[in-house]
C-alpha cells in the first residue's frame, strides 16, 4: 500500500464540518493527496487559521471556487456545500473527466421534480443528474464502482435505510407501516451560526422538528421504493438532541409473518450485511448507543421483535459526520478506485 499512486483530490467546502472531517480522514489515506481546498467566506485564508490544531499537518490556503481550475488540478473532487451549489459546479467537473462525490442533496434524487418540490430549486443539469448513483455502498456497491458521479446520502437516510433495508428487500414488513423516529446531534446542522444551535438553546432540551415535512423523507422513500419494488411512503420524525455528534434512528414496522422472532431477524440481518465491513449487527438483547459509533465509520444495528404488536423494532447508530457524511463519501471513493472499502476509515470510535 505504501507504494500506491496518489490520486489528486479537491475538497470544495473545506472549511465546513464535512470538509474538515474529510481532510482528517484523507490525511491517513495512502491513495490520495490534497490538491485543492475551496470555500467562500474563508477563501484566501490559510486552513490553519480556521482549524489551528490541524495547521501543522495542513499547510494549504482555502481558495475561491473556479471549476475549471479545480478540474485542472484534481482527479477527484468532493463537494461539501449547501444544497443547490453542487449542481452548478459538478457539470464542468464531470465534463473535464473528474470523479465527483457530492455530499449535498443535489445528486441524490432520480426524479428531479421531487428535488425541486422539496428543496425549492429548479435544475437544468438533467443529463448529468441522470448519471448519478446513490452513494450507499451497502445497497449500491456495484453501481458506485462504475460511476463518475455519486450523490452521497443524507445522515438521517443513512441511519434509517441501513436499519430498514433487509426488511424491505426481503419483503418481511408491510412497507407503509414503517415509522422512523430519529435523533441527531447539533453538528448535523453544519457550522454556520444558527440560533437554535446555540448552547443556551439546544442544551437541556429535546424536541422534534420538520414533523411530517422534513426533506429527508422523500430521499428515504425513494430508496425504500426501490427496495420494495413499488412506491412506498414512510413516517419520518427527526429530533434535535443536546449532543454534538451522532444519530440514533429507531424504526418500527409491522411484520408480514407474526411468527418471526428476534433471532430470525438477527440471522437475516447478519446474512444481508455479511460483506459490509461498516455494518455491525449487535448480539441479541444489545441495543446500540451513538457513543459507540462516534468517531468511526461504523453503523451499529440492534434488532428486536415485539410479539404483542407484531412489529420489528430496529435501532441504528452512526456518527453523522463520518458514516453519515464524510466517511461514507470516502468509502464510496475507495469503491470507485477499486481500493479496499475500509482504506483510511476509522474502525474504532473515540470512546471510551
Ligand atoms: N453535517 C452533517 O451531519 C451532514 C451534512 N450533509 C450535507 O453536506 C453538505 C455540507 O454540510 P456541512 O459540512 O455540515 O456544512 P457547513 O455549513 O459546515 O459547511 C458549508 C461549506 O460550504 C462552503 N460554502 C457555502 N457557500 C458557498 C459558496 N457559495 N461557494 C463555495 N463554498 C461555499 C462554506 O465555505 P465558507 O466557510 O468559506 O463560507 C463551508 O465550507 C450540506 O449539503 C449538508 O446538507 C450531509 C450529511 C450529514
Ligand atoms: C440536526 C440538523 O439540523 N440536521 C440536518 C440534517 C443535515 C443533512 O444531512 O442534510 P442534507 O440532506 O441537506 O445533506 C437537518 O435536519 O437539516
UniProtKB/TrEMBL annotation:
It is found in: Cytoplasm. InterPro entries: AGPR, AGPR_AS, AGPR_dimerisation_dom, AGPR_type-1, NAD(P)-bd_dom_sf, Semialdehyde_DH_NAD-bd. It is an enzyme of class 1 (oxidoreductase). Pfam families: Semialdhyde_dh, Semialdhyde_dhC_1. The active site is at 155. Keywords: Amino-acid biosynthesis, Arginine biosynthesis, Cytoplasm, NADP, Oxidoreductase. Residues 8-147 form the Semialdehyde dehydrogenase NAD-binding domain. GO terms for molecular function: N-acetyl-gamma-glutamyl-phosphate reductase activity; NAD binding; NADP+ binding. SUPFAM superfamilies: Glyceraldehyde-3-phosphate dehydrogenase-like, C-terminal domain, NAD(P)-binding Rossmann-fold domains. The keyword Oxidoreductase applies. Coiled coil: none annotated. It comes from the Bacteria. One of its GO terms (cellular component) is cytoplasm. It catalyses: N-acetyl-L-glutamate 5-semialdehyde + phosphate + NADP(+) = N-acetyl-L-glutamyl 5-phosphate + NADPH + H(+). GO terms for biological process: L-arginine biosynthetic process. Catalyzes the NADPH-dependent reduction of N-acetyl-5-glutamyl phosphate to yield N-acetyl-L-glutamate 5-semialdehyde. Belongs to the NAGSA dehydrogenase family. Type 1 subfamily. This is N-acetyl-gamma-glutamyl-phosphate reductase. The gene is argC.
Amino acid at each position: 500500500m505504501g507504494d500506491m499512486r496518489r490520486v489528486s483530490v479537491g475538497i470544495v467546502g473545506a472549511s465546513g464540518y464535512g470538509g474538515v472531517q474529510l481532510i482528517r480522514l484523507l490525511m491517513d489515506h495512502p491513495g490520495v493527496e490534497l490538491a485543492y481546498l475551496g470555500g467562500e467566506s474563508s477563501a484566501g485564508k490559510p486552513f490553519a487559521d480556521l482549524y489551528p490544531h490541524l495547521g501543522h499537518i495542513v499547510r494549504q490556503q482555502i481558495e475561491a471556487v473556479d471549476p475549471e481550475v479545480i478540474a485542472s488540478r484534481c482527479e477527484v473532487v468532493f463537494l461539501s456545500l449547501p444544497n443547490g451549489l453542487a449542481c452548478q459546479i459538478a457539470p464542468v467537473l464531470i465534463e473535464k473527466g473528474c470523479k465527483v462525490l457530492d455530499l449535498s442533496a443535489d445528486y441524490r434524487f432520480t426524479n428531479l421534480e421531487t428535488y425541486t418540490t422539496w428543496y425549492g430549486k429548479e435544475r437544468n443539469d438533467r443529463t448529468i443528474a441522470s448519471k448519478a448513483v446513490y452513494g450507499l455502498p451497502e445497497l449500491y456497491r456495484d453501481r458506485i464502482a462504475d460511476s463518475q458521479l455519486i450523490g452521497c446520502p443524507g445522515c438521517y437516510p443513512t441511519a434509517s435505510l441501513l436499519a430498514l433495508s433487509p426488511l424491505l428487500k426481503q419483503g418481511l414488513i408491510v412497507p407503509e407501516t414503517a415509522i422512523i423516529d430519529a435523533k441527531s446531534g447539533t453538528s448535523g446542522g453544519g457550522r454556520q451560526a444558527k440560533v437554535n444551535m446555540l448552547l443556551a438553546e439546544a442544551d437541556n432540551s429535546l424536541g422534534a422538528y420538520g414533523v411530517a415535512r422534513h426533506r429527508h423523507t422523500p430521499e428515504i422513500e425513494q430508496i425504500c421504493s426501490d427496495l420494495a419494488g413499488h412506491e412506498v411512503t414512510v413516517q419520518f420524525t427527526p429530533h434535535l438532541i443536546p449532543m454534538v455528534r451522532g444519530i440514533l434512528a429507531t424504526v418500527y414496522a409491522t411484520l408480514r409473518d407474526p411468527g418471526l422472532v428476534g433471532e430470525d431477524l438477527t440471522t437475516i440481518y447478519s446474512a444481508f450485511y455479511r460483506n459490509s465491513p461498516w455494518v455491525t449487527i449487535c448480539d441479541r438483547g444489545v441495543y446500540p448507543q451513538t457513543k459507540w459509533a462516534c468517531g468511526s465509520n461504523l453503523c451499529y444495528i440492534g434488532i428486536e421483535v415485539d410479539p404483542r404488536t407484531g412489529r420489528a423494532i430496529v435501532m441504528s447508530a452512526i456518527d453523522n459526520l463520518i458514516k453519515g457524511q464524510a466517511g461514507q463519501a470516502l468509502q464510496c471513493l475507495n469503491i470507485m478506485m477499486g481500493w479496499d472499502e475500509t482504506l483510511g476509515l476509522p474502525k474504532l470510535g473515540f470512546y471510551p
